[in-house]
Amino acid sequence: MSLFKHLLRNPTAKSYSYSSPSIIMPSNLILTCLSHFTTDASPSTVQLTQYSGLGPTKANEKPRVVVLGSGWAGCRLMKGIDTSLYDVVCVSPRNHMVFTPLLASTCVGTLEFRSVAEPIARIQPAISREPGSYFFLSHCAGIDTDNHVGFDGSSLVIGVICGSVMILDRNAGSVHCETVTDELRTLEPWKFKISYDKLVIALGAEASTFGIHGVKENAIFLREVHHAQEIRRKLLLNLMMSDVPGISEEEKSRLLHCVVVGGGPTGVEFSGELSDFIMRDVRQRYSHVKDYIHVTLIEALCYKAVVKGEKNFINAKVLSFSQSGVRLVRGIVKDVDSQKLILNDGTEVPYGLLVWSTGVGPSTLVKSLDLPKSPGGRIGIDEWLRVPSVQDVFAVGDCSGYLESTGKTVLPALAQVAERQGKYLFSLLNRIGKAGGGRANSAKDMELGDPFVYRHLGSMATIGRYKALVDLRQNKPLDCVTSLWCGYLKETKRVENGSELANGLRGRFVRLN
């Protein structure tokens, strides 16, 4: 921000970039960055709220791919995109990718938080190395596709910068950005915009609360690193508080009652990690309260957990959880208070820690976009992951779903789906770029090749005590070697030699045919 204000006070400044106060940039790098930014107003009339950012790409510049999001789909695409063909601009409210399968392990200290987060600049080094590639920390609030034309005209623009919220201005045919610097608003807002040649929407999804009162205020969602940090903090705080003299027996039981709502993979894996933590650490280090702490998993449908309709899978899960000390409760949550939740039959369940993992749904931004929607409210796409109503716009990951006109069902919101879509799309964009279709509106009549085809390799959920439930469906074991490798690494957190791996794979998985 100090760099912005300095440049604005200089009447000879004609272009600008931005820099975090904690980042020191060499002068030649600053000059290189400044050459890519433009301002609409004259130097003498520049105001804090009037400026632009990355304009349309020129004939002597590489086409620009703008990626909204830093999840599985967006990061897989950025990792494989050919940066000799494209400049890459990533827009996301976080500067790292979260390896979500290991997130539950960080809540209880099995892994540290840095082990599950990978910086975007490490996934795609061109973002910090190439002069035309950038990462902007931002929230996107709207997309205008009306003015998306060739590189010699105006393109669709997406405003981005640190922690910003973008406001759509349809009259101007662009998306404006207003920074959200902090809750205290100690810094003035800043605005600018970005043009693109290809746009990839990988905004993900948000946790579903089904409109239940009190969920957002009292529950914790296990989707980001800061969620895991909050869970660890609250769990340890409750353990400390329950050992204070004068705390009643009833209050001890409430503080040390951990409730998980949702029997999907996240809920099952977190319950397993928490059970291991209780069995191995709490009983040794907090012996005074070891008999009070317990875990309850609440699921609306007993036969939903992890894989719908698989009776043998559910039976194995129930048996394993009963042995791990996790209590399974069937019920629908109707209301959530600060210290208890109420089920549909009137049962009150007091809790000290509440983790909500009942699945995901389209985000508020995705719902607001003026784009075709698939069943369920996601952004509608065709077989090549394109948004058919607009040019050069693609959607991947949890925010996208097949249109009804394709005759295909909407794919589940899974990491393996998003990763495969990202892998397919970077290959498609690379082929388009090599064929000369990287510019805006230059690939209208281009042959795209084979459409995207998804093959489900199965599901796996760890349940603690070095065990996991695996559903391979109709796949052969050799088709799921990658999944088993990941599962083993996930449970042991290390591999010392091949023989240990082979023994672990034979003895630490419950295979269901």
TrEMBL record:
<protein>
    <submittedName>
        <fullName>Internal alternative NAD(P)H-ubiquinone oxidoreductase A2</fullName>
    </submittedName>
</protein>
